[in-house]
Amino acid sequence: MLEEIIDKYIEEQRASARGQRKELLERDLTGTKKLLEHLWTVLVSFEGITLEYEFVGANGERNYIDVYYEPLAIGFECEGFVPHAETITRRRFS
Q: Could you report the per-residue pLDDT of 29-75, keeping only the tens digit for each?
């Protein structure tokens, strides 16, 4: 049941996304889904959560954080090879 809720939420986020954010949401979100499972146990809702939230870094570049929780202004990142470096070799990633 939770898996269905997560899939529906991701589809809603994809539908509202444009540009780079949409491209990021079209990738493999296995790590993000696991993170959302954990957040659900604490929040029991995805209200206030934005996936692939865009922000401008100190250097002026646009960056995206995997999950942003607006009410507390907290960002969550999925770490690991698949979510962030699937296009390079594991050795280079390490």
A: 988 999 999 999 999 999 999 999 999 989 999 999 999 999 999 99
Q: Which residue has the tokens 């954990």?
A: 38
If we measure between CA atoms, which residue out of 65, 71, 1 comes closest to residue 35? Answer: 65
Could you tell me the pTM of the whole model? 0.81
Three-state DSSP at 49 gives strand
Write down the domain spans for the chain: 2-93
